[in-house]
Design a protein that fits this description.
Blueprint (H helix, E strand, L loop, with lengths): L1 H48 L1 H4 L1 H21 L9 H11 L2 H17 L8 H26 L13 H28 L5 H10 L1 H30 L1
Length: 237
């Protein structure tokens, strides 16, 4: 009788353990199925919303809005020495849209802002350089986006305030600004004198302003740009 009772007890324990294993397995399967459903639903939603980006009329509206916003911000900050968001928003347009459309936004924005600049229109050689520079800035925005999309650490729907993203954007903003200041000073100097001494003197005289410009744009690309990219992508998608 004792042996028979122990056998029944062990069978009951074994049955309970088997039941618990089945329950745990079922819960894991349910959880996995729920997660797969959420992922597929999110992908479908993103795919459906992204249709807007394929519409020609919508993209034309975005080009117009980016150009207008860049020009308005350019005029708003025109009287603050070397503090600007003009470059940042042209770069942002290329990042959000594409290389070609970023180039177009840069060209249109620079054409309007530099020609109707409240501080005066630039001399023709400098004017042409500014058109080329800002067109390339918009193109570069699309180029950087293409580069980041191939990287696993780029997650625009999650968080862009990560070290690598901020470093890449900060370096990009710094390089754009540094070359603009160097080349615009060089072209402006050539219009007055062909001597290298004059260029060096001009650059050193304005070193405080160019430093403010450089630091300001780097900070803008590091702290403002990631949030703007994420906000606009979520809004238009």
């Amino acid at each position: 009788m004792v042996f028979h009772f122990k056998t029944i007890s062990s069978k009951l324990n074994s049955s309970r353990e088997t039941s618990k294993v089945r329950e745990l397995t079922q819960k894991e399967n349910d959880k996995r199925g729920y997660e797969e459903f959420n992922v597929s639903t999110t992908e479908i939603e993103i795919g459906n919303h992204s249709i807007w980006r394929q519409k020609k009329s919508f993209r034309i509206a975005l080009i117009s809005n980016f150009s207008a916003l860049a020009v308005v911000l350019g005029y708003t900050l025109a009287y603050l020495p070397n503090i600007e968001l003009f470059t940042l928003f042209i770069f942002l347009s290329g990042f959000i849209l594409s290389k070609k459309e970023g180039l177009l936004v840069g060209l249109l924005s620079a054409l309007i802002f530099t020609f109707f600049n409240p501080l005066g229109t630039s001399p023709p050689p400098l004017f042409i350089y500014q058109l080329i520079h800002y067109s390339f800035t918009g193109f570069l925005g699309g180029l950087v986006n293409d580069y980041l999309k191939a990287k696993t650490f780029y997650k625009p729907y999650d968080d862009l305030y990560t070290f690598r993203i901020m470093v890449i954007l900060g370096l990009t903003g710094g390089v754009i600004t540094f070359f603009y200041d160097i080349l615009s000073t060089l072209i402006g100097g050539v219009l007055v004198s062909l001597k290298i001494e004059y260029f060096i003197t001009s650059y050193l005289t304005g070193i405080v302003f160019t430093s403010v410009h450089l630091v300001g744009n780097i900070l803008g690309f590091v702290f403002l740009l990631p949030g703007l990219i994420q906000l606009i992508i979520k809004f238009i998608d």
